[in-house]
């Protein structure tokens, strides 16, 4: 019945700091509650493709949304500390201070996975429409298109299962096994 999907939730407080300050001085916003990461469900023509994902902070006492941030496509979501994650908005940097390290790790993994997956899907769709005239930088890739360490999260205890493999053979050619077609297309481009 809802027009949105929730991917992660955790207890958190919101901090902010000035953009481009020489020394980052964090200020507590006095906002705390349950932080949700979600997205609007697919519709025929979404109002803004780049802002389908969002963070919402719900006050635990009143149950009302007290803060919301629409996640831009190229967000650089960083795990500064296991309990403190940061990203840059248009007017300031934001920080999430989590109460539990395990919840924070799951939250970061969901944010990075969903935003990266959406960026790849949008890139494939755009390429077919505009034939490479528009380049979209995925949230967790470097400008050269390589995979960065922040894209890879640690598995939770006893949950690791090897389902796919990507490597380079002795001739310098990428090889893959067990990947879906979206990933195989991206590797073929490399």
UniProtKB/TrEMBL annotation:
Residue span(s) of domain CRIB: 152-167
Protein name per UniProt: CRIB domain-containing protein
Residues annotated as domain WH1: 1-118
Pfam families from the UniProt entry: PBD, WH1
Protein's organism: Crucibulum laeve
InterPro entries (UniProt xref): CRIB_dom, CRIB_dom_sf, PH-like_dom_sf, WASPfam_EVH1, WH1/EVH1_dom
